[in-house]
């Protein structure tokens, strides 16, 4: 559903790239957490997926499409297949709950009878029945986020991107929103959620992608917020001070049934000293695993089907 | 986008932005009224032109008491001139009748002149009106000829007047067009800023560029339309009160009719709407990321 191959993103010339050689694949129906410290490139990665930004290097594929090669006038179609939710909700204050959700359908030209029937459905799904006529400032933060999720989901996107959706919410409300996103995922939508909420990640035990300074330092199935201290690092981490510049940084093997990620091993210019600073990684003699090629699957920490490459 | 949500967005935008939109309407109205005035002045020049082309171009005034034989000799000579296509004689009485007709709007002038004061004359139609000067040169000072008058030359000042005002109107219209563009540009900037939340969400949920831009372009086109209608109203009032109400009594020339007014109105409205929409699109390129 989402495929990144050696994706690098630089804002402007010079300076440290916001993303560096990120390679990952997310299958249809997966639920994936994207974690990492502030400034590690989570939002940047999400923006690349809806072509809000373009990758400087590498391949970004969404729903089987090379995002860089979509014609400008077809980018809206890409965005209709990807719903987005943000920390700050981004509701229109002068529209009601129903109006905010209907807006997303109206502006893409959906016929009125569709809007009329679909909006109540999705509001029921997010648990806002009875509050259709309220304005955003008459709702709690959690309810506002439900409206935002309803708006993102009302067009039935294949993918839902959530950038710190619980960032402004208390733990209990965060858990509710998390449940809602989980429901949406259970119904078949691929969900990629960037978050700092360690509690949620640890509770959910879903796949975790961790970025650090633009580099993918962990891809762990059923992972927690923090990297496991004792797991076979080789399976999840592929960047280390010992890796020569010409070798690939973090690399995740292809998932089952899908083609491998080509050309991963050829990334140049990786600063050799950019070792992840997360505790437990530093100084560990890590070997890049999962590189495309004959590498055998070894680290069994939930990486699916590395042999597929 | 469907019409309902589109006009909803337009209404919101207008409500938030009313003062600015009014300023645009007024500027556009002035610009288009000037444009229309220029078009009508040109129509007037053409009307006068058509009128004069139908008229005999050069008049040869004859001296009083010229013997008929000499007169006929002169007529033969004029008729033989390759530049002249038609010669017609008008007696003193006929010239007086024409004079009364031409100046029917100014009875004071007519009252002071009798048939005897006016010379009998030949009126010449020329193959090419531009040869008038040569005819004047050739026949001036001949025996029996009082004077040779190129009527179009007499109208030089009128043409210069009409041309000058046409040019002035167009020049002012152009300046107003620049002012309109600046205002529309500003209006779009304010409007895009006021609606930035909406447009950001539209972009996010996959609205097309056309759908995102449409309310802005529509807002500007609407301002152009209203401005155009105001300008057309001005032109109609000018036709009723100024042209038909006053000038018609003061001039011997025919004046442009309602056809010219409606043609100018259509032009003004079309230019107003398309130019305003076009200017908005240019401004959007700058102020609205899509
Ligand atoms: N539009 C931009 N122009 C220039 N630099 C940017 C831009 N957006 C992000 N960056 C830089 O890219 C890096 C990654 O930013 P990003 O917003 O992706 O981080 P993040 O992981 O989402 O952080 P946070 O957890 O605080 O939201 C940062 O160094 C940031 O300064
Ligand atoms: Mg962020």
SS-derived structural category of chain B = alpha+beta
Number of helices of chain A: 8
User: Which architecture of chain A per CATH?
Assistant: 3-Layer(aba) Sandwich
How far apart lie the N and C ends of chain B? 16 Å
CATH topology of chain A: Rossmann fold
Oligomer: heterodimer
Total of helices of chain B = 11
Provide a descriptive summary of the structure in words.
The complex is a heterodimer of chains A (309) and B (290). Chain A is globular. Chain A has a single domain, classed as Rossmann fold (3-Layer(aba) Sandwich). In chain A, 25% of the residues lie in helices and 18% in strands. Chain A has helices spanning 42-49, 75-80, 97-106, 112-125, 141-153, 171-186, 198-204, 233-236; strands at residues 2-9, 19-26, 31-35, 57-62, 65-66, 82-86, 159-163, 190-194, 207-212, 215-220. With 309 residues, chain A is α/β, with parallel strands linked by helices. In chain A, strands 6-7-8-3-9-10 form a 6-stranded mixed β-sheet, with helices on both faces. Mean pLDDT of chain A is 79; it is low at 231-309. Helix content of chain B is 71%, strand content 8%. Chain B is elongated and about 95 Å long. Chain B is an alpha+beta fold and 290 residues long. Chain B folds into 2 domains: 3-51 and 157-287, no CATH class; 54-152, Alpha-Beta Plaits (2-Layer Sandwich). The interface between A and B is medium-sized, with 24 and 19 residues. Magnesium ion binds next to helix 1 of chain A.
């Amino acid at each position: 559903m989402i495929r990144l191959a050696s994706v690098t993103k630089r804002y402007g010339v010079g300076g440290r790239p916001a993303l560096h050689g990120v390679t990952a694949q997310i299958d249809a129906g997966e639920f994936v957490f994207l974690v990492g410290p502030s400034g590690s490139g989570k939002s940047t990665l999400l923006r690349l997926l809806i072509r809000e930004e373009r990758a400087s290097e590498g391949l970004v594929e969404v729903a089987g499409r090379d995002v860089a090669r979509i014609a400008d006038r077809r980018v809206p179609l890409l965005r209709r297949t990807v719903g987005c939710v943000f920390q700050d909700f981004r509701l229109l204050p002068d529209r009601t709950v129903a109006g905010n959700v209907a807006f997303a359908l109206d502006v893409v030209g959906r016929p009125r009878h569709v809007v009329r029937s679909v909006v109540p459905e999705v509001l029921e799904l997010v648990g806002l029945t009875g509050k259709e006529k309220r304005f955003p400032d008459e709702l709690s933060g959690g309810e506002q986020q439900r409206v935002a999720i309803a708006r993102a989901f009302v067009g039935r996107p294949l993918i839902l991107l959530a950038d710190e959706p619980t960032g402004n919410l208390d733990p209990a409300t965060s858990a509710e929103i998390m449940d809602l996103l989980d429901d949406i995922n259970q119904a078949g939508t691929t969900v990629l959620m960037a978050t700092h909420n360690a509690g949620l990640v640890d509770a959910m035990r879903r796949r975790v992608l961790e970025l650090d300074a633009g580099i993918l330092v962990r891809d762990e199935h059923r992972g927690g917020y923090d990297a496991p201290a004792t797991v076979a690092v080789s399976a999840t981490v592929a960047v280390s001070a010992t890796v020569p510049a010409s070798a690939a940084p973090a690399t995740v093997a292809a998932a089952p049934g899908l083609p491998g990620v080509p050309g991963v091993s050829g990334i140049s210019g990786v600063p050799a000293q950019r070792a992840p600073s997360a505790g437990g990684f530093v100084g560990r003699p890590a070997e890049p695993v999962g590189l495309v090629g004959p590498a055998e699957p070894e680290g069994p920490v939930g990486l699916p089907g590395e042999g597929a490459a | 986008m469907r019409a309902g949500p589109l006009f909803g967005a337009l209404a919101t935008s207008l409500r938030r932005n009313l003062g600015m939109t009014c300023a645009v309407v007024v500027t556009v109205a002035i610009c288009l009224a000037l444009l229309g005035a220029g078009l009508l002045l040109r129509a007037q020049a053409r009307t006068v032109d058509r009128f004069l082309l139908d008229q005999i171009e050069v008049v040869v005034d004859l001296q009083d008491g010229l013997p008929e034989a000499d007169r006929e000799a002169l007529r033969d000579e004029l008729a033989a001139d390759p530049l002249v296509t038609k010669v017609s004689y008008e007696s003193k009485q006929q010239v007086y009748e024409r004079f009364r007709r031409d100046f029917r709007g100014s009875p004071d002038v007519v009252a002071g002149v009798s048939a005897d004061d006016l010379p009998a004359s030949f009126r010449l139609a020329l193959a090419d009106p531009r040869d008038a000067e040569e005819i004047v040169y050739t026949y001036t000072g001949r025996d029996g000829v009082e004077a040779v008058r190129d009527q179009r030359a007499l109208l030089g000042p009128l043409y210069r007047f009409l041309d000058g005002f046409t040019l002035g109107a167009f020049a002012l219209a152009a300046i107003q067009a620049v002012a309109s563009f600046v205002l529309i540009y500003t209006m779009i900037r304010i409007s895009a800023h006021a609606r930035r939340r909406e447009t950001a969400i539209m972009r996010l949920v996959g609205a097309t560029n056309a759908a995102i831009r449409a309310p802005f372009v529509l807002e500007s086109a609407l301002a152009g339309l209203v401005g155009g209608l105001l300008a057309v109203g001005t032109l109609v009032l000018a036709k009723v009160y100024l042209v038909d109400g006053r000038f018609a009594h003061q001039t011997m020339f025919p004046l442009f009719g309602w056809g010219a007014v409606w043609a100018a109105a259509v032009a003004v409205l079309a230019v107003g709407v398309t130019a305003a929409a076009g200017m908005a699109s240019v401004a959007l390129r700058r102020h609205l990321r899509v």
